[in-house]
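Quick one - first record:
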Amino acid sequence: MTLATTAFDAPRAIRLSFPGLVVAALCALAAGWIAGGLGEPLSRNPVLVAMLLGLALGNCFTTPEALLPGLDFTKRYLLRLAVILIGFRITINLLLDLGAAPLLIALFELILVLCLVYMVGRKVLRLEPEFALLTAIGCAVCGAAAILSASAILRSRDRNAGIAIALITLAGTVSLLVYPVLFLAGWLPQLDDRTFGIFVGASIFELAQVYGASHAVSEGALNTATLVKLTKVLMLIPLLLVFGVFARRKSGGGGMPIPVPWFVLGFGAVVFLNSHMTLDPRIRGPIIDFDQFLFMMVMAALGLTTRLTRLTEVGGPWRLVAIGGFGVVISAAITYAALGLLSANGTKTASRTTESRMLADPGGRLFSNIGCSKCHVPALLGRQGEVPLYSDLLLHDMGGALDDKILQGDAIGSEWRTTPLIDLHLRTRYLHDNRAESLADAIFAHGGEAKIVRDRFFALNDADRHAILEFAGKL
């Protein structure tokens, strides 16, 4: 057995991939526009909207053959680039703060899910051994990538691999849709945003779906979920080595090369870079936005290439629904139970962050849900960890009501740096010139980029507005 190193003809691949790349990008743009017009929780999760849009288009219309190279390029290479860019959100301190417990949970969940899904598929649902094993690998490790890698090692039939990928993609989409809703509604009471990241990182199948579910909750959840999921991706290597040994003994010949997820090393390099230098927010911000757009492209491509009709080709639809549903439920149950057990025993699974404390407060959740935390970011990352500010420290156009007609550097009169809200309870008047006698007056003066959030605030009922003001007053 050898570690795989595949040659890649970039110019030819890009030429063949261009039509599919354009379609994936257009779907991502459309998903962002659609998500912006939807209410909670979909407006928080354009990645999910991209997946649903791709599924709808891919199953209502036949995806042209000319698009498939570009869609495959998106799912394979742009996904890896998107994972590498997540490193700009994470520091070594965050990795050390995560501790060993979440990684042990991921390993424990992987082993149990692999065994249980395979046994149920074979013994209870009477599925083909090869298909049951590929489905179990997809549920336990990292979805389609794990299925394709194992399929190559085991020399599985393309038909079984294709149907297993379709099943795992659809089952993971259910998790992507449901888990953030359950968390934000308070139905996962033992989880904060960091432990929610552990939960989705260990239990959701596809890496892109992990991004979508955790990003819908908070950046803290996203960072933790990424680290946990990449740990499971690395576990694919020893798992494939084991399968390779069995495959070689069975065939009596040499094994297939073992694919290595080199992009994980790229992710680690970016994390190291991000931990030892301070990146200008004007550079880091567009990188983060581009990273989200890449994930939206990946999810759209996944949807466009997932055909629901394939689920009728192996063992009957009801058995496929049963094994997919079992994989979702058992993955979630094992991870949630393990988190509860560690919490009950006092084991640290994740520290409380400024963002998690915000989301634990009813007014803080409303503050986040209507969009206040987009500019009044709970905390920024410094060299020694997070710095609570409730500000992104960036310039924003606040509209005509706050335009003082004074030019300062590149800032026009209506552009103001986001005021930190930390220690807001010490103030008696508000805004840059102290014109506002109350927080409500200060919010009313917000226009320009903040107008949509201001309008959401005043559209709330009295109790919800009071909860937000009370939360801000405690900062």
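second record:
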Amino acid sequence: MTAPVRTVNAEGIELIKTFEGLKDGGPDTPGLEPYLDPIGIPTIGWGSIWGIDGKRVTMEHRAISLEEAEGLLRRELFHTRLSVQRMIRVPLTDNQFAALASFTYNLGGGNLQASTLRTKLNREDYFGAADEFPKWRRAGGVILPGLVRRRAAERALFLA
């Protein structure tokens, strides 16, 4: 029997929303339009690279409503939660799961899969895994202050 998909607690949702931000690429028009993230990737809503049509976001995608942005977040979080559950084989607190969901939402399941964070965690080295969060602070080869803050927040939540 397959385990039910875990939920991300309120602290984890707030962390994701805070660091992804709800940006609008066209503030002079109705709806939330695509925008470029800090390394130039077309994004919509709370950091989604996938549109409501299931296709990769382009700058030509139509604007979405706040409700559609919430739906995108829920959809992407579902896949994120599945990835975390599939890759992590040790017991997790709700805060640890939420921190890993934020990390994976931002970086993708492939990065969690390849990470030393995952390896250490699956060896039950919880503190060693926590110390891996700050290492994931680069985007496009550049250290981004927002990622430094996000990883610190994820680490703190993981250890809470």
